[in-house]
């Protein structure tokens, strides 16, 4: 069976996010009010062929650990 | 009130995603089986100060249109 697995990879909360800071500045230059913080990460959609949803999640977990996320700077969340 | 708004910005389905293709190749080089397609986009977390969740969503919608997503190549989804 095919599963679509969503992986969210974000910069760790303890770290600065210069890209987010730049976007926050851009939004305020555009006159948009109300936004107080911006953090930018990656969103990865995987099409996984696996016998069960659990198995698909395991594959995504392994992919995240091995390639998608850098644990020194990022954390990841997986959802199906 | 403060709301955390999640914005997902992905390449349009009709377009090639070379970054995703590269990651797919990387996963297969690492010996990970089962992944058939990878698409990579951005995940943006906004901290919004707004009187209501609906208002916060509107602000995120405007930010997405004006700055976060390029409608020629990307679509976005907003969730609170």
Keywords for this entry:
80 residues; three-stranded antiparallel sheet; 2 helices; Mth169, Chain: A; alpha+beta; homodimer; 3 strands; elongated
In short:
With 80 residues, chain A is an alpha+beta fold.
Describe this structure in words.
The structure is a homodimer of 80-residue chains. With 80 residues, the first copy, chain A, is an alpha+beta fold. Helices cover 35% and strands 39% of the residues of chain A. The first copy, chain A, contains two helices and three strands. Chain A has helices spanning 18-29, 53-68; strands at 2-11, 35-49, 74-79. At the A-B interface, strand 1, helix 1, strand 2 and helix 2 of A face strand 1, helix 1, strand 2 and helix 2 of B. Strand 2 of chain A pairs antiparallel with strand 2 of chain B.
Topology:
The structure is a homodimer of 80-residue chains.
Chain A (H helix, E strand, L loop, with lengths): L1 E10 L6 H12 L5 E15 L3 H16 L5 E6 L1
Antiparallel strand pairs in A: 1-2, 1-3
């Amino acid at each position: 069976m095919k599963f679509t697995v969503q992986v969210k990879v974000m910069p760790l909360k303890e770290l600065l996010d210069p890209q987010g800071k730049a976007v926050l500045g851009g939004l305020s230059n555009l006159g948009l009010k109300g936004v107080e913080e911006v953090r930018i990460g990656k969103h990865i959609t995987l099409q996984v062929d696996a016998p069960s949803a659990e198995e698909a999640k395991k594959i995504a977990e392994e992919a995240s650990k091995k390639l998608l996320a850098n644990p020194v700077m990022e954390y990841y969340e997986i959802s199906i």
